[in-house]
Amino acid sequence: MVRISTIVFVFFCISLPGKSQSFEVFASLHELNGPGFEAFAKLLINYENGECSIIEDFGDQQEKMISGIGFCSTGELYTLGMWNSPSAGILYIFDPDTGEFEYVTDAVFLHYQNGYPRLHPIACLNNTLYSKNFQSFWKFDMDSEEFTFLGHSTLIGTHSSDIGVLYQEVMFSPSNTPGTTQGIYQLDTVNPNNSTRIFPYPIPEWPEYWTHSLTGSPVCNSVFVTRQHPLFGDNKGAFYNVDNHSYSLICDMPPYLYSRKTSMAEHLPKEECEAIID
């Protein structure tokens, strides 16, 4: 399992030749102060200029993607259909160029029909989808269409908002209630209860760190999140550094609630990340 070094950095970025210092994120958008779904959208995160904006709105695609979205390293953007809809548990590939969804399999729905729990967030690593339901973690081999139960984790309460990838490791975010185990975790795929907390949320400053969703980023050792909490009344894009446990607010996000995020930056090799210097 990957372990991150403990060198301490002052958190700011430098311009590197050939690097654009921006990346694209796909996310589900919801009403900021309400439960309503708004759109499935592509955002440009420009961390050099401090601007985060929606560059393409694919409209109301809730039925086909609300349960999960995740890029594979080969470039396919997988989405999981909404439960209690005609697309319940159906896996799709979304084509951003056409805005079309291609049916892949209903294996997730059949898994549920056989008495197993509904699965929600998804992340893709090496042609395997990782997902969870409350405290149980699963993986799905997309070649064989077989599910494997990985185990339970009692570290994070009963909920987890999102799953992502960083340096060939699966990570997941915490539930939305404070506690001494709050933070971002690296999933132990052999025993989820041994998962490593790579970014702790300090108590009592927990509300300052809370986020609904996460994805890997081009910045070294850093996860991109949206910090959203009613005590702060703001909506900031941020990098959380899993190495030195610092964070940096990047931009004001468009005024939505973000429950799912994914980016091809999740699969960027560590040796190609943007450097951060002392």
What descriptive keywords fit this protein?
278 residues; mainly beta; 4-stranded antiparallel sheet; 2 helices; 4% helix; disordered N terminus
Structure description:
The chain is mostly beta strands and 278 residues long. Helix content is 4%, strand content 43%. It is built from 2 helices and 20 strands. The strands form 5 sheets. It has a 4-stranded antiparallel β-sheet, with no helix packed on it. The two termini are 27 Å apart. The model is unreliable at 1-18 (pLDDT under 50).
Would you summarize the structure shown here?
By secondary structure, the protein is mainly beta. It has helices spanning 62-65, 107-113; strands spanning 22-30, 37-46, 51-57, 68-71, 77-80, 91-95, 100-105, 122-125, 128-133, 136-141, 146-152, 163-166, 169-172, 183-186, 196-200, 211-216, 222-229, 234-241, 247-252, 257-262.
Q: Give me the Rg, rounded.
A: 18 Å
The DSSP helix count reads 2
Structural shape: globular
Strand arrangement, largest sheet?
A: 3-2-1-20
Low-pLDDT runs of 5+ residues are 1-18
User: Helix/strand-derived class?
Assistant: mainly beta
User: What's the pLDDT, averaged over the residues?
Assistant: 86
Q: What is the rounded distance between the termini? A: 27 Å
Percentage of residues in DSSP E strands: 35-45%
